[in-house]
Amino acid sequence: MRVARPQRRPGRVAPPSRSVSSTGALLKLNLLVASSLDVATVLREIARAAATLMEAKLVGVWVADERARMLELRALSDDRLLDELPNRVMPFGHGALGRAALERRRVVIDDAERDERATSVEWFKARGITAAMVVPITFHDSLLGVLALARGAPFRIDQEAEELLDGFIAQSAIALRHAQLYEVAGRRQREAEVLAGLVRGINGSLDLDTVLQHVAEGAQELCQADTARIALRDAESDVFVFRYWTRAWRRDPKDLRIEPGIGLGGLVLSTGRPMRTDDWANDARIRQGQYREVVEAEGTVAILVAPVRLGDRVEGLLYATSHTPRVFSDRDEELLVELADHAAIAIGNAQLYARTVSLSRGLVEAQETERRSIAHELHDQIGQDLTAIKLLLRRAARADGDARRVPEADALSLVDDLIDRVRGLSLDLRPPMLDDLGLVPTLTWFLRRYGTRTAVRVAFAHEGAERRFERATETAIFRIVQEALTNVARHATATEATVRLRADEAALSLEIEDNGCGFDVARAGARPTAGLAGMRDRARWLRGRLVIDSAPGRGTRVRADLPAPAAEPCRAGRA
Ligand SMILES: Nc1ncnc2c1ncn2[C@@H]1O[C@H](COP(=O)(O)OP(=O)(O)O)[C@@H](O)[C@H]1O
Ligand SMILES: [Mg+2]
Predict the structure, then answer these.
(1) How far does the centroid of ligand 2 lie from the alpha carbon of residue 366, in Å?
(2) Which residues lie across from 135 on neighbouring strands?
(3) DSSP letter for each residue of 175-196
C-alpha cells in the first residue's frame, strides 16, 4: 500500500506561483466558511479550492455515512462531470476511496492502470486522469468524508504542500461539520413542520386520499427522494397496488402488483420491516421478477421502503426512491417509518369511520326489521283477534239467555290467546326480567321457551355468571344468545345445542354450540347480513370480541368474550 508520507525531495521547491495561488485559495475558502452555511456550497467550494491548491484536474468531496459504511459523492470541482461519473456511492473498504475511509489514511495512486485499488480506470483515462490521492476528512473521532484528488501526473507532496494540505483538510472539516449541523437543524425543523401538518390533517376533516397524498409528498421532501409512492392492500382482491405518488410514472402502474418476497417492497411485505437498497439492480437480496422492467423504465436506483402497519398486518407500503445512486440514511428510514405510521393512523381512522357508518346503518336496518315484525304481529294477529272478539261480543249483545254463552266463551278464549301473544311479543322485545333478575334467570327462562317452540334440545351451563353485570353487557349477551339460537333453529337443522356462560371478576365468556350442518363462515361474512355482523358489532362495542367457528358438516360454535367489570351497587340492588 502506498500511503503518502511527507516525501522530501532534495532540490524540489514549490514554485512561487503556487504559493500565491494557494494562499488565495485558502483565503477564499476561509471567507466562504465564515459566510456560508449551505452544505452544497461549502462542499463545492472545498472541491474547487482543493483543485487549485493541489493542482488537481478533478476533485470530489465524498461524504461518509459511518453507520451504513458508505461514501456518497456530494460535490465535484467540475460540475459538468457530475452526472457522468460512473460511481457516486462507494462502500467502505472498496477501491482507493473506500480504503482511505476504512483505514483513515491517505491513499496515493501513481499509475491507475497498474494499481488494483483504482476503480473506473478507463473512464478516468479517457479524461486524461491516471493518478489520484484520497485524503480522509476527520473531525475529532468521526470520519466526515474523503477528498479525492485526481490528475494526469502523480501527486508529489513536499513539506510545504504537506502543511498546506493538512491545514486545508482541517479547515474543510470544520466547515463541513458546521454546515452539516446547520443542515440537520434546518431539516429537523422542517420535519417537525411536515409531521405536525400531517397530524392536523388526520385529526381535521381531510379525507383519506388527501392525507395519504400528503404523506407521500412529505416522504419525498423529508427523505430528499426523487419520488415517493404508496401502495395499499386492495380490500376486495387482497393484492397490493399503487394508489398515491408524487411524480408521474413513465408507465402506467395500474397493473403493477406487489407480491410477497419479490422486489424490495415484497421483502418488506413478507418481513414487516423497513428495508433499503442503494442499488436495486445489483442487490443480491432482491428477487427482481416482473419489476426489473419497471425499475429500468422509471430509472430507479436507490429505494427505501417502510411498511404501513395496522396492528400486526401490513396494509400498505411507503416507498422513497432515488434516480441516482445514494445511501438512504438511518434518519431517512426513521422518518419514513414515522410517516408510514401516520398513514396507518389515517387508514385506521377511515376504516373506523366506514365501520361506524355501516354499523349505524345496520342498526337502523335491524330496528326497521324489528318494527316491521311488530307491525305485522299487531296488524295480522292481534288486530284480527280483536276484530273477532268485537264480532263475538256484538253477536252476544244481540242474543239472549243461553244463546249468549257460545260467543262469550269464544271471545274469552280469544282474549286468553291474545294475552299470551302480547306477553310473548313484549318478552321478545325485551324481557323485563333481564333488568329485574339478571342474565342467568332470563336465559334459563328463554331457553325453556325456545325448547318448547323448536325441535332443538338446549343445555345451559353457567359458572360465576350469577352476579349482575352492566346493563349493556347483559343486553349484549342476551341478544347474542337470541340471534345465535334463532340461526340454529332457522339454518342449522340441529338436534342439540349448548349454551355456556362463564364469568370471573373481570371477564365474561359465552359459547353457543350446535350439532347442525355448519357453514362456510368466510363466505357468509362476504354477504352483508344483519345477524352475524350484529353479534360481532355488539361484542366489539363493549371492547370484546366474537368468533364464529364453523365449517360445512361439523356444527357451529359462536364464542364471545367481553370484559365484565361488576355493575355499580345501585343498579345491582334495584328491584
Ligand atoms: N348455526 C348455524 N348453522 C348453519 N348455518 C348458519 C348458522 N348460523 C348462521 N348460518 C349461516 O350464516 C348465514 C348468515 O346468518 P345471519 O347473518 O344471521 O343472517 P340470516 O339469519 O338473516 O340469514 C345464514 O344465512 C346461514 O347460512
Ligand atoms: Mg340470523
Answers:
(1) 11
(2) 147
(3) HHHHHHHHHHHHHHHHHHHHHH
Rounded CA-CA distance 485/470 in Å is 23
**Environment of ion ligand 2 (residues, CB < 5 A):** 487, 531
Q: Which long-range contacts (CB under 8 A, 24 or more apart) does 64-68 make?
A: 64/92, 64/101, 64/143, 64/144, 64/145, 64/146, 65/327, 65/329, 66/142, 66/143, 67/329, 67/330, 68/327, 68/329, 68/330
- Residue 519 Cβ inside 6 Å of ligand 1? The answer reads yes
* Residue pLDDT tens, the chain, 575 long: 444 444 444 444 444 455 666 667 677 767 766 666 677 888 888 899 889 888 999 999 999 988 889 999 989 999 888 888 888 889 999 999 999 999 999 999 999 999 999 999 999 999 999 999 999 999 888 899 999 999 999 998 888 888 888 888 888 888 778 777 887 888 888 888 888 888 887 777 678 898 899 999 999 999 999 999 999 998 778 889 999 999 999 888 888 889 999 999 999 999 999 999 999 999 999 999 889 988 999 999 999 999 999 888 899 999 999 998 888 989 899 999 999 998 998 888 888 777 777 767 766 777 777 778 788 888 888 888 898 899 999 988 888 888 888 888 999 999 998 888 888 887 777 888 898 999 999 999 999 999 998 989 999 999 999 999 998 899 999 999 999 999 999 999 999 999 999 999 899 999 999 999 999 998 887 666 678 888 888 888 788 999 999 999 999 999 999 998 766 554 444 43
CA of 486 to the centre of ligand 1 (A): 9
CATH class for domain 430-572? alpha beta
Residue 198, C-alpha cell as written in the block: 400531517
User: Is residue 512 lining ligand 1, measured as CB closer than 6 Å?
Assistant: no
CA of 358 to the centre of ligand 1 (A): 19
Residue 59 C-alpha cell reads as 476533485
Placement of cell 411507503 in the chain = 318
Same fold, 16-186 and 430-572: no
Specify whether domain 202-353 bears CATH 3.40.50.300. Answer: no
What element of type H or E holds 29? helix 16-35
**What's the helix, strand, coil split of the chain in %, to 5?**
50, 20, 30
3-state secondary structure of 138: strand
Q: Where are the domains of the chain?
A: 16-186, 202-353, 430-572
| Domain 16-186 listed as CATH 3.30.450.40 | yes
CA–CA distance, 66 with 98 (Å, rounded to integer)? 12
In total, the chain counts a number of residues equal to: 575
Distance separating alpha carbons of residues 137 and 153, to the nearest angstrom: 23
Q: How many Cα atoms sit within 13 Å of 306 on the Cβ side? A: 26
What's the burial of 241, exposed, middle or buried (CB within 10 Å: 0-12/13-18/19+)? middle
CB 146 within 8 A of CB 62: yes
Q: Is the CB of 517 under 6 A from ligand 1?
A: yes
Phi, psi of 496 (to 5 degrees): -135, 150
